Amino acid sequence: MAILGIFQRGPIKHAVLSSGQVTPDPARCVQCGICTYNCPVDIDVRAHAWRGEPVIHSHCLTCGECVARCPRGALRFEKTDLFTRRES
Ligand code: SF4
Ligand code: SF4
């Protein structure tokens, strides 16, 4: 479901993207840097993949370019509850 979301259109696509964060699988990453090269806001996605850390970055547009371009399928969107409204 995670990656499928970026290929959907309309409100569902935006809902998926706004609730997702790019998460790497360092075991699949070959450090080619294609993800970083294609990021429109110059986030060093490769470095995140090296460290195995999700891209939690205030400039990330959740545009999906890095996920779509990775030749190793090492990146995916993972749901986050960052934007979930909490009951008080
Ligand atoms: S494009 Fe994929 S394989 Fe290449 S550095 Fe980025 S995460 Fe690693
Ligand atoms: S989702 Fe888009 S903005 Fe965010 S790290 Fe990947 S390419 Fe960059």
Provide a concise account of the structure shown.
The chain is of the alpha+beta class and 88 residues long. It is 30% helix and 11% strand.
* Overall tally of domains: 1
Into which percentage range does the β-strand content fall? 5-15%
Kindly name the structural category.
Answer: alpha+beta
- Cα-based radius of gyration, to the nearest Å: 13 Å
Q: What is the name of the CATH architecture? A: 2-Layer Sandwich
Are there runs of 5+ residues with pLDDT below 50, and where? 1-6
Give me the count of strands.
Answer: 2
Separation of the first and last Cα atoms: 30 Å
How are the strands ordered across the major sheet? 1-2
CATH class type: Alpha Beta
Which descriptor suits the 3D outline?
globular
Multimer state: single chain
* Each distinct ligand: iron/sulfur cluster
CATH topology: Alpha-Beta Plaits
H/I helix tally: 4
Summed over residues and divided by their number, the pLDDT gives a mean of: 84
- Could you give the order of the helices and strands? HEHHHE
Which percent bin holds the helix content? 25-40%
Describe the largest sheet. 2 strands, antiparallel
